[in-house]
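Provenance and format

Records in this collection were gathered into a single text stream. Each protein contributes a sequence line and a token line. The two records reproduced below are adjacent in the stream.
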Amino acid sequence: MWQSTTSNMYAWELPTSLEVGGCEYKIRTDYRVILDILAAMNDPEIFEPDMTEDEKRQEQIMTMLQILYIGFDNIPPRNWQEAAEKACDFIDCGIKRDDRPKPRTMDWEQDAPIIAPEISKIAGRDIRIGETHWWEFFGYYMGIGEGVFNTIVSIREKRRKGKKLEKWEKEFYQSNKKLVDLKVRKAERSEEEKEALRELLGIKK
């Protein structure tokens, strides 16, 4: 059973490697790498339909390890669980989180055109150019204040809870339904699409 543990990472540094089994292993730290991992972890369509839930979970974890660790092949199988725990801590930015599932109020892919400019404004540069450490990127994301993105998330949350929208929120929603409404994930991909996605994410059949 894979379980995340409390991180011991030093909060004032941007980690570029993780210690597993007493050895340091370099990791890919750019935020786009982590977003690829999150996409894989939340996309059941990339796995074989006859897999059990446990098998899918194990495949998700192996995918995360293969993407994140530059030298994953050098990590002994006996240390894979520790490697997964350290990877989860890194992705969570060293913050202990409540494991209870939460309703989806944003989508990194769908909301990218809105989030990227707001994060770039906070960063003082276009974060789409060059690499940005995941922790740095997430810090910028957490610093997003009043603006279009927060308005969209607020309206999504109110609609989810059945709360009444303010007049200006109703007008905003009517004018921006495509931005506000979270897209339903595609129910089924073609085998060609699945295979291309597996190859992109490094998933071995």
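Adjacent record:
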Amino acid sequence: MSNKTVSLIGVLATIIFISSALIGGLLIDDYSVTSQYISETYAVDTEYGVWLRILGYIPSGILFTIFCFVAIKYFPSSKLIKTGFLGVGVFYGIGTIVTSIFACDSGCNPEFINPSISQVIHNLSALLIYAIVPISIIIAGIGLTKFSNYKALSFSSIILGTLSAGLVFLLFSNLQSDFLGLYQRVIELLILTWVLICAFRIKKTGNNDLN
């Protein structure tokens, strides 16, 4: 797979994810991007939830997984870098697929009252995504610090990972906040920004700059 193809996969995955989040919010009356989770747009009882999952989130999750798994070979050989990319691929890529297949209950059941099996799996997957993906990005950034040609990407990875980890802590520290939707969207934006930065770097350098 060429570097341009890998780069395109990362960009396309990001575009599909963002488009799905935007469209999903517009399809629901009185939906608040500030206080409501993205998952609420494709909950089991939403009119277009199935289509958002089939045409949006599941494809984007597949593409994120492919991107992260293949992108490894376009960066220097390092256990930390490989661990970081695999972490994002498994927990953000596959995690997005899992949370999409197992949609949350109506309104995403914030009180967790008699949750369905789907809701339980959805919540567990989401927890793993937000707990592990920011750390994985930081790990990849630390691994990149050893290579002079990747200082900028290393710095960006550590900053984006740290910021997203901080917001994850803020998100879970007060699940009654009126800004849960906003926190989640900023976390997602930070992760997606990292994917795009890596994608553009792969397109620019290919596999001929691995030192």
